[in-house]
Amino acid sequence: MLVAFTLFSILGKKLELFSEGYFSKSKALKNYKPLRLLVHTAAGFTWSLAKIHCPGLETAITYGFDNKIGYVLRLSYWKARVASLGKDVRIDVGAKATNWHNITIGDNSWIDRNVFLMAGKSGPPDFEGPFYLKQNRSFKGKRGELIIGRGCHIAPNVVIQSTGGVEIGDYSGVASGAKIYTLSNHYRNLERDDGIIYKFTPLAPPKEQSLIEGPVVLQGNSAIGLNSVVLPGVTIGKNSWVGICSYVMKDIPPNSIAVGCPAQVVKRRFKGTGGVRD
Q: Where on the phi/psi map is residue 63: left (φ > 0), alpha (ψ -120 to 50), or beta?
């Protein structure tokens, strides 16, 4: 028993879920070393169970333990499943993901309550209907990847679907209820007029569906407002903010404020590079 406890503690420490700065913020963790040992042990044990896909573990950890213990358990579980998880990340109750191995999350980011991260590829090559790929040269990752930078906040009830790839730059925020989609049905064939009335459901025959896919990029220090929707192939430029309930279907240039349906630039945040406001 003691041997197992020691091994899990060593493993938990090697996971490097927390920085020394994080531990120093808590007087209990800073001054009471046995408590820190328990944190590492719980982390190592949960990580091990996640690696062997223990039945029921994901549900229990995702929806249970709405406290500091749950915080450690969720971090350990996500560390075992995602491609990369930085230090001092916060994962809240109800946050879920698919195709975990395509997800990267940077240091000190926060995945808030009931966020749904849908990574991974779907659709073509077996898809029979029209498929339009919208290019995005700003995207540096691979199809199906979800890359979340450092210091980002993904607020409650956000949905990010990264079939075509999503990259969120450092210190960016996606507000509550916002949606980012990289793959969507379209009402027509974007390559030619074929006279077919396309259907907006994945349950329709494939030949009666038209799809559009394109990576989405939020460059550093950008923001997506409450209940806004970002569609395939869009880049939100660095330092740009999109207002609430906006519908983004075209690129937003850097240093801009954009609002509306569809979203339009209404003002520049700064003039030149000196940070002078308009």
A: alpha
Phi, psi of 168 (to 5 degrees): -115, 115
Domain limits at 20? 1-81
State how beta strands 183-186 and 210-213 pair.
Answer: antiparallel
pLDDT tens-place string over residues 167-219: 999 999 999 999 999 999 999 998 888 888 999 988 888 889 999 999 999 99
Q: What is the dihedral of CA 92, 122, 231, 112, to 10 degrees?
A: 0
**Three-state SS at 78:** helix
Q: Does a structural domain hold residue 90?
A: yes
**Residue 28, burial from CB neighbour count under 10 angstroms (0-12, 13-18, 19+):** exposed
Quick one: tokens of 121?
């590829």
pTM: predicted TM-score of the whole model, two decimal places: 0.90
Q: Are the C-beta atoms of residues 127 and 107 closer than 8 Å to each other?
A: no
Same-domain pairing of 149 and 68: no
